[in-house]
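Service request form, structural biology core

Requester: graduate student, group of Dr. S.
Request type: structure prediction, single chain
Budget code: on file
Notes: please return the result as structure tokens.

Sequence provided:
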Amino acid sequence: MHSKVAIIGSGPAGHTAAIYAARAELKPVLFEGMMAGGVAPGGQLTTTTEVENFPGFPAGITGSELTDKLREQSARFGTDIITETITRVDLSARPFKLWREGADGDSDKPDTCDALIVATGATAKRLHIAGEDTYWQRGMSACAVCDGAAPIFRNKPLVVIGGGDSACEEATFLTKYASHVYIAVRRDVFRASTIMAKRAINHPKITVLWNTHVIEAKGDGKVLTHVVLQDAKSRETRNLDVSGLFYAIGHTPNTAFLAGQLDTDDTGYLLVKPGSSLTNIRGVFAAGDVHDKHYRQAITAAGSGCMAALDAEKYLEELEAEEQEQSAGKL
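Core staff response, request fulfilled:
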């Protein structure tokens, strides 16, 4: 199957790109994935419970409901949504080639496109401790900015796992809502920058638990009520009463399937030309958390999806003009 524009990814970036591309009569095809990156179609937003900071929903909306609405809107304008995962691409020549999971061998026929928007996001790292399957989204999260203001966490003790800048930033953010915040650090020193570490250590509502592993999440079967801590040196364990656990141990950008064909930074995030969605290959664009390691918000992802669609539309217009010039030159 050939399309003018193919979009890989189904979060706010992918669907916003699809909405803009479809309204521009580009007839986009969107591969939403099937448990790509270990999460359902819709990406990391589907792992968020209540979303209260996305404009247009004054009463809030769940992450799953928001992704459903995004999907419905992109389909309404004619986006061809395919619930399959792209596992291999060839960007060496146009049209670009895309292979679906289970049909990605050398003898399998690929899908093709003139322009490609990569909006595959980044997956939050998790430790998968005991009890996590039970209490994920029931007191456990990987995004303090997304979930920290939820009623379940307000005026309650919380724990953040991590030792870098993200952990310090998220713990400091959570002090706006929590009664107290603990940071569980597996070593006896932060990996964070000096200024961020000092800010966390000196904050009156933050306690740093050095040499500490969180090994289990426990609760009443409905919500998290406490975690089990283990001393990294003595191996002794103890309980800590908390109503929320937040992972702040980083993200993995979902770029492995690109096999190094696009430029990335040293952690795998796609690099784009500043102020645009343009990658190092003409006709290939990046949108959302797959290149944004700083903001990582649904609204910023949606904005970059809009940018990618507009950049792709401009590219296709230029491509058409070039082809017309070449045809005219042959006459």
